[in-house]
Amino acid sequence: MEYFIQQLINGISVGSIYALIALGYTMVYGIIKLINFAHGDVFMVGSFIGLFSAKYFASVGFPPVIVLILSLVISMTVSALLGITIERLAYKPLRRASRIAVLITAIGVSFLLEYTGVYLLGPQAKGFPEIINKHQFQLFGSSVQVDSNQMMTLGTTVVLMIILQYIVHRTKIGKAMRAVSFDMEAAQLMGINVDRTISATFAIGSALAAAAGVIFGMTYNAVDPMMGVLPGLKAFVAAVLGGIGSIPGALVGGLLLGTVETEISSLGYSSWRDGVAFAILILILIFKPSGLFGKNVREKV
Amino acid sequence: MKKLNKSFWIGIVFAMVLYGVIQILLTTGIFDDVMESTLILICINVMLAVSLNLINGITGQFSIGHAGFMSIGAYVSAILTLNFDVPFVLALVISGLVAALFGVLIGIPTLRLNGDYLAIATLGFGEIIRIVLLNTEYVGGASGLSGIPTQTTWTIMFLFTLVTVVVINNFINSSHGRACIAIRENEIAAEAMGINTTLYKIIAFALGALFAGIAGGLSAHKFYVINPGSFNFLKSFEILVMVVLGGLGSTSGAIVGAIVLTVLFTVLQEYPELRMIIYSAILILMMIFRPKGLLGSTGFSFKKFAKKEAKPSDSINS
């Protein structure tokens, strides 16, 4: 039982990372109906920027907490700009093209980011500095352990999620986002600047992915240019699981997928872990394409 | 009908002449072994690109799991020749049929999905096939199979490529092919016109998988070793770039795309990262500036030689 709970805690920590990435997928899909394949690679870029800024600030001699916050902020800002750039250069010219054309472009952008990374940084993994020393905590006198990193992961995810909820439901740009995702043309007629809203969505999604990247680096201590592929795909699975287009769905889907994966690994089937994630994806797509929290949209002729 | 036959025979004669010329160049030693390998690689990629084009370009079902079918063909044929001493050509045919069976099995549930959901589901299936192979001891797990007899010769390769192109091209030009194009243009309208959309989608999937499987078998018997890693998402992506470069929906385009990219691949062999950067840049730029591909969807047709007007272009505008 204690072992199970231990794995549950590990799973939630992995799941938080998936959830943060899945949010970007779900928001972008909600607005322009595009599976942004490049999102996993924005996560990778965010992680690398976090790595470089953490190294720099640590060498300057800031205290660890400040280093963490500064690298998070810098990595999120740069990635947000990257997200806007990608959208402007690659997706905006295709606003009127078929969805398949945009999807192919997204795959192209994804590979472009990956291999530019390999070209510039080399294919081998780089060590991520330990910004904050890990502490182990015993829970309730049992053998269940939680380390400071896992607590920080969950903490950051919850804080970012609250900020996101606030932006989407309480601010003007959030209202614009919801309007555009509901009906782009009607929103335009109401005087909403659709292009700016889409850019804002990409910026927010990319910033969240970058935060996930920094957390990922701190958890696994290694980053490489291809690291975005699998977490990216799995975060997409999480987004579909929770119901694509739904923000709480992305959170629940991410946590659920992370937990399922860790439990499967702990049962000794770790080499099947990725297969299970994709099997979940296909089962969901076939039996309940709207996901756990999604709205069922009927196709009209 | 007669005109179609005429252009068909002109195509066959052209292919025979092409084969004859290359065969002479090979036997006289003007083309060396490296050149022969490149030619075989080109033919394998032509088979893959033409079969993917049937699924993606003609039927409009966006599949990005083509490497999965290829891996099934490669593994089945390799096991047949290694462990059961089945003759090479028979093994290839069986491997193609097994891949087609998988095409149907995967097709039936996933083809209810459309657009990007289908894409991600085929990607998922491709990855699942790879993970299953990775975890099956019988097929060597992560290290794969080696010592596969290298029986793929230029003649066999050319023959199979010719059969692929002829069969798929004739399928496209038949009433079945037009049904597939109708599905691509507007699925609901096609259904209203009495086309059994699910059936045709599955036929297209199975036919595409069949030739991808044979291509996989041929490549396994050319390169001596196979492992799950060589049939990952990257491979599917490569085939997709070939089809997109030539023009989605055009068989001749797929052939040209396969030739151009294979040559590029061989030239840039020493710079793998650069190659991928170029691939992805091609993909993005093509989609933005020339979404119909190098040749557009009409492409090159031997009908011109049979004194018939080229048919109006079937653009992809859905």
From TrEMBL, chain A:
Signal peptide coordinates: none
Superkingdom per UniProt: Bacteria
A single MF term (Gene Ontology): L-valine transmembrane transporter activity
Pfam families referenced in this protein's UniProt entry, alphabetically: BPD_transp_2
GO cellular component: plasma membrane
GO biological process, one term: L-isoleucine import across plasma membrane
Location within or outside the cell: Cell membrane
Membrane topology: Multi-pass membrane protein
InterPro entries: ABC_BtuC-like, ABC_transp_permease, BCAA_transport_permease
Membrane-traversing stretches: 12-35, 65-86, 98-121, 151-168, 200-223, 235-260, 272-293
UniProt entry keywords in alphabetical sequence: Amino-acid transport, Cell inner membrane, Cell membrane, Membrane, Transmembrane, Transmembrane helix, Transport
Primary subcellular site in the record, as a coarse category: membrane
PANTHER family attached to this UniProt entry: BRANCHED-CHAIN AMINO ACID TRANSPORT SYSTEM PERMEASE PROTEIN LIVH, HIGH-AFFINITY BRANCHED-CHAIN AMINO ACID TRANSPORT SYSTEM PERMEASE PROTEIN LIVH
Homology family: Belongs to the binding-protein-dependent transport system permease family. LivHM subfamily.
Protein name listed in UniProt: Branched-chain amino acid ABC transporter permease
Organism: Paenibacillus monticola
Organism phylogeny: Bacteria, Bacillati, Bacillota, Bacilli, Bacillales
UniProtKB/TrEMBL annotation, chain B:
Keywords tagged on the record: Cell membrane, Membrane, Transmembrane, Transmembrane helix
UniProt membrane topology term: Multi-pass membrane protein
GO annotation, cellular component aspect: plasma membrane
One Pfam family it belongs to: BPD_transp_2
GO molecular function: branched-chain amino acid transmembrane transporter activity
Source species, domain of life: Bacteria
Subcellular location: Cell membrane
Membrane-crossing segments per the record: 7-31, 37-55, 62-82, 88-108, 115-133, 153-172, 199-219, 239-265, 277-295
CDD domains (alphabetical): TM_PBP1_LivM_like
Keyword Transmembrane helix attributed: yes
Protein name: Branched-chain amino acid ABC transporter permease
